[in-house]
Design brief:
Shape of chain A: elongated
Helix content of chain A: 40-55%
Strand content of chain A: 5-15%
Order of helices and strands of chain A: HHHHEHHEEEEH
Number of domains of chain A: 2
CATH superfamily of the largest domain in chain A: Glutaredoxin
CATH class of the largest domain in chain A: Alpha Beta
Strand order of the largest sheet of chain A: 2-3-1-4-5
CATH class of the largest domain in chain B: Alpha Beta
Distance between the termini of chain A: 28 Å
CATH architecture of the largest domain in chain A: 3-Layer(aba) Sandwich
Structural class of chain B: alpha/beta
Radius of gyration of chain A: 18 Å
Number of strands of chain A: 5
Distance between the termini of chain B: 72 Å
Largest sheet of chain B: 7 strands, mixed
Number of helices of chain A: 7
Shape of chain B: globular
Largest sheet of chain A: 5 strands, mixed
CATH architecture of the largest domain in chain B: 3-Layer(aba) Sandwich
Oligomer: heterodimer
CATH topology of the largest domain in chain A: Glutaredoxin
Number of helices of chain B: 26
Radius of gyration of chain B: 29 Å
Strand order of the largest sheet of chain B: 14-13-26-25-24-15-16
Number of strands of chain B: 36
Structural class of chain A: alpha+beta
Number of domains of chain B: 5
């Protein structure tokens, strides 16, 4: 369950809307931040904090692909493979991440260090290929650059 | 007035409705799938599309309101093509497994495809695969068949208010799931089952056991569980009940049911049913014949009457039996046994409360229509959870809340947790005081009404007793909610009646009802508590609520019945039991009741009944009470016999025979047999004859007949005049409860899934709730270092019991709850009682409890 600080944060969100249900999406992001992903407990906590039925919380959460519906590693890599990135070798980078870091698309490395999600265009076509690690943006990727970058994420 | 044209037919409407409804009124059927009459229009499936002149595109008839001058076409080539297209899309992922789908034959999708549908699908893609889920004990989910009309989800959210299910995922992967994705863990009302148009939600009670067209007969009857008396339809094949379904728009429940009503019918076929009469020989009950058993009863009762007089005989009637059974019973006790000692377990709540309410405010004060709750601005709930005691009444409160009514609660009412606006939970044993304080507060602002002097005086005394400053947080808010309300309903549960000072709670509620001109509803957990009182199964009143001590009434009945009724009022339930203990009562005749289990201080009750000279029990199971009887007579239960029941709003309804499930005899017939053998012939050849007699002698049921009742809407007082007998002096009010020094207090839980011990014999309800659990608060669990499911030993001064613990977030204080539904582990065997001097209801005592890890 959420601690007092988080509950206060949710209270503030609630105050922004005329009804509790409207606060559901931002609260789910908070739950995701706190629990790492939208576990059953995370959704139950949101349900309780907002007094919105558990089933409704789950129904809403399941609609959106950008919530994490299963546990992720310590760092989340989101790599684009849309057209510009693809032409400039993003798919090879996917293979590289698999061999070098043991992480497959929609999977997590066995050491729980990285999770990989193949994402749609992040608007960096001019400097493709590009990826997000957690919330940090990286472009002009190559195998070497990926090694340098990921070295910082232990 | 709105006039429009639908399919070249002129339709005139009194009030604005949707095109769909307007067409229905004109006898034109528009196909639908996501529309359901119990739900709000949704406009999701697009099957109800129609052409409206001068409107672009096709319009969905369920969401478009009819307007003056509209010209609507509901069938055309274009429309058919669109419908066919929609159905083709729906069938892309539908498994078309009609040959073994239970819904085939009553499936809306099947019917629509039959009418409009494509004969061939053009999509070659793989269908989505979702295995049928049997992870829930009661409901099976087949999400391949689901057409995502969301009727189930809307029913669960918007009508039932349980919000247990939802649509998961998106696009063609959408499917309905409960939160857990496996078991529903919900209120198990099964109303999602009612509204599912396809075979996506199925009842595991009858899955694959019959086809809808194989039903031999359908019997429209009423439920046997609680005081609401919901209408339901029993479908029978080969003399066995295949399923129980509601019918939309019918009866009090208008197509909604609760778990007990829908799934609780299996007890009737239980193997534990009594098969033959039993007679105690050499200290053991042995199988016997009807003639031996009936002769013995007649002989013994005659002997005791002759030797000790009629007052040594007593009878306990049953709020589960019909008006006819109970009428015959009290007539037998009064005329044949010569005793007015007739009462029922209803004395522990409903009968006790109602008597005092009527004495204060007049007869019929609790006769209010459940539907009326929906129109209240404020609903004040006190003394129990309406959504578990009377679930369908509870739904009206939830609906009122959705309509904007304020729901205010004193005490715990778990089922209203998401619907309440204000809740105050007084400390243990202080709830009666809190109620009085509330009344004092209201009267301080509002003054008294000056119409009933005794009540005014009582209220004034309370204003003096309590200071202006309220002792509990929230009481002030509660008070103003009541004061500001233009129309108030009070829903009163029986928890506060079961107090040694319960009469004070009743007075406080009566005072509020009087000051606020509120509608009063009494919760009733048995189907015929009201009828029982109406037909005279109380020690001081004859049928029709006529006081026994008014000479004219008594002589009127004596003339009608041809004999004499003893002068003196009889004694009440617990006084009967105590009389048995003291040897004042020698013989007891119990019809359809199990006092050893259903009354507090079980060991004492058992001991008292054990000391009787002669105990007759008439029941459908060998209950704890039947086990110690001298003669046990097998009766017939719900669905095996016909009779009328009067619900808590005083609606008289017919319960009809549907099957022959056992070899018992109707209760009234057994009684008339015994009566005949004791020299008083009851000339009833069938149950209707008894109602004819009641209609003749009881002013409340005057001119009533089965034909009238079958038409529906037979509300009490039917053609008769209620009697206004009021008290003129308030009885002395008892002291407040003292302080108790215990960490935890044991209280009675009234669960949603069980009722008495009948439900224990219904497999479905046992699957939902297989064993009693001790409900404790989260804080208590922490304090005791316990988790959900831990086994504990619960001990009071009376006894102890081993159960598992279940943490219940709705409990906010140091109360722990245990139900009284499971043999050998009922809460009443752990508690004692002290009689309320005014209402004669047993006030629960001895609730200090110790909880140890088992």
């Amino acid at each position: 369950m959420f601690n007092e600080t988080v509950l206060k944060e949710i209270e503030e969100i609630k105050a922004r809307y005329p009804d509790r249900r409207s606060a559901l999406l931002p609260s789910l992001y908070i739950a995701q931040r706190e629990f790492g992903w939208l576990s059953r407990e995370a959704m139950e906590s949101v349900s309780k904090a907002l007094n919105v039925p558990e089933a409704r919380v789950r129904g809403t959460a399941s609609f959106y692909a950008m919530y994490k519906h299963k546990p992720v590693g310590r760092h989340l890599i989101q790599l684009c493979t849309n057209i510009s990135c693809m032409i400039l070798g993003a798919e090879k980078l996917v293979d590289f991440l698999g061999t070098k870091y043991d992480v497959q698309p929609n999977g997590t490395s066995r050491d729980n260090r990285f999770s990989l999600v193949i994402m749609e265009c992040i608007g960096a076509c001019g400097t493709a290929p590009a990826m997000l690690v957690n919330t940090d943006f990286h472009d002009n990727l190559s195998e070497k650059r990926i090694e340098e970058i990921l070295d910082k994420y232990k | 007035m709105i006039t429009l044209t639908i399919n070249e037919k002129e339709v005139t409407l009194d009030k604005p409705v949707s095109i769909l409804e307007a067409a229905r009124q004109a006898g034109i059927k528009i196909p639908t799938l996501c529309y359901h009459e119990a739900l709000k229009p949704y406009g999701g499936c697009r099957l109800c599309v129609v052409e409206v002149e001068r409107m672009p595109r096709l319009q969905s008839a369920c969401t478009l309101m009819a307007a003056d001058g509209m010209v609507v076409t509901t069938e055309s080539e274009v429309i058919s093509k669109v419908r066919r297209g929609i159905l083709e899309f729906l069938l892309i992922n539908h498994p078309l497994d009609c040959p073994y789908c239970d819904k085939a034959g009553e499936c809306e999708l099947q019917d629509l495809v039959n009418k409009y549908g494509p004969t061939v699908g053009r999509y070659k893609e793989e269908k989505r695969k979702v295995p049928e889920s049997h992870k829930d004990q009661i409901l099976a989910r087949n999400m391949e068949r689901c057409v995502v009309c969301t009727r189930c989800v809307r029913m669960c959210n918007d009508v039932q208010g349980a919000s247990a299910i939802t649509i998961i995922g998106r696009g063609d992967r959408s499917r309905m799931e409960p939160f857990s994705s496996a078991s529903f863990n919900c209120e198990y009302c099964g109303n999602c089952l009612t509204v599912c148009p396809v075979g996506a939600i199925l009842s595991r009670l009858y899955i694959h056991s019959f086809r809808p067209w194989q039903v031999d007969k359908e019997v429209e009857t009423i439920c046997s569980y609680c005081g609401v008396g919901c209408s339901l339809v029993v479908q029978v094949r080969d003399d066995s009940i295949k399923r129980v379904i509601p019918e939309m728009g019918l009866g009090v429940n208008k197509g909604l049911l609760c778990s007990r009503g829908r799934f609780g019918y299996e007890y009737i076929n239980s193997r534990e049913r009594l098969k033959t009469p039993l007679v105690k020989k050499n200290g053991r009950l042995e199988e016997s014949t009807w003639s031996e058993a009936l002769n013995l009863v007649a002989e013994k009762l005659s002997e005791i009457k002759k030797g000790e007089g009629g007052s040594a005989i007593a009878g306990i009637a049953s709020p589960r039996c019909s008006n006819e059974d109970n009428y015959a019973f009290q007539k037998f006790m009064r005329m044949v046994c010569g005793s007015n000692n007739i009462d029922s377990v209803s004395r522990t709540g409903f009968a006790a409360a109602q008597k005092f309410f009527e004495a204060l405010l007049g007869q019929g004060i609790t006769a209010n229509i459940i539907e009326g709750l929906k129109n209240s601005e404020v609903i004040f709930v006190v003394g129990g959870d309406p959504t578990s005691v009377n679930p369908i009444l509870g739904l009206s409160i939830r609906e009122a809340s959705r309509r904007g009514a304020k729901i205010i609660v004193l005490g715990n009412a778990k089922g209203l947790d998401r619907f309440k606006n204000v809740q105050v939970i007084p400390p243990v044993f202080k709830d009666v005081d809190a109620l009085e304080e509330l009344l004092a507060g209201v009267s301080r602002v509002k003054g008294v009404r000056g119409e009933k002097l005794d009540i005014d005086q009582g209220i004034r005394a309370l204003s003096e007793k309590y200071s202006e400053k309220m002792s509990l947080d929230g009481l002030e808010e509660l008070k103003y909610a009541l004061l500001d309300s233009p129309s108030t309903s009070i829903v009163f549960g029986m928890d506060l009646v079961q107090r040694a000072n319960g009469h004070r709670a009743i007075f406080a509620v009566a005072g509020l009802t009087y000051l606020l001109e509120a509608r009063l509803y009494l919760l009733s957990d048995r189907p015929n508590e009201q009828g029982l009182i109406d037909v005279g199964c109380v020690p001081d009143m004859l049928p029709g609520g006529r006081p026994l001590n008014i000479h004219d009434f008594k002589t009127k009945f004596e003339t009608a019945w041809g004999g004499s009724i003893p002068d003196k009022d009889g004694v009440t339930l617990l006084e009967i039991i105590e009389g048995a203990r003291n040897n004042d009562i020698k013989a007891l005749y119990i019809m359809g009741e199990n006092p050893v289990f259903n009354l507090p201080d079980g060991p004492f009750i058992k001991d008292a009944l054990g000391s009787l000279d002669f105990l007759v029990v008439q029941d459908i199971f060998l209950t704890e009470t039947a086990e110690i009887a001298d003669v046990v007579l097998p009766a017939l239960g719900w669905s095996e016999k016909s009779g009328t029941y009067t619900n808590l709003e005083r609606r008289i309804q017919l319960q009809k025979k549907a099957v022959n499930a056992s070899s018992g005899m109707e209760d009234w017939k057994i009684i008339s047999e015994v009566s005949g053998k004791m020299g008083y012939k009851m000339a009833y050849s069938e149950v209707e004859d008894i109602m004819d007699e009641i209609a003749e002698v009881s002013p409340l049921y005057r001119d009533l007949s089965y034909r009238e009742i079958a038409k529906g809407n037979c509300l009490w007082p039917y053609h008769g005049e209620p009697l206004r007998g009021e008290i003129h002096e308030l009885p002395a009010m008892a002291e407040s409860a003292g302080n108790y020094g215990s960490d935890f207090y044991l209280a009675l839980e009234k669960p949603l899934f069980h009722s008495g011990t009948l439900s224990r014999r219904s497999q479905a309800l046992m699957k939902i709730c297989p064993e009693p659990t001790l409900k404790i608060s989260g804080a208590a669990a922490e304090k005791l270092g316990m988790q959900d499911g831990d086994r504990v030993k619960v001990s009071t001064s009376t006894g102890s019991s081993e159960v598992s613990v279940s943490i219940d977030e709705s409990i906010k204080d140091n109360r722990v709850l245990l139900s009284n539904n499971f043999e050998g582990r009922g809460v009443f065997s752990l508690l004692t009682y002290k009689l309320d001097p005014v209402t004669k209801a047993p006030g629960i005592e001895g609730c200090e409890v110790e909880i140890q890890k088992g």
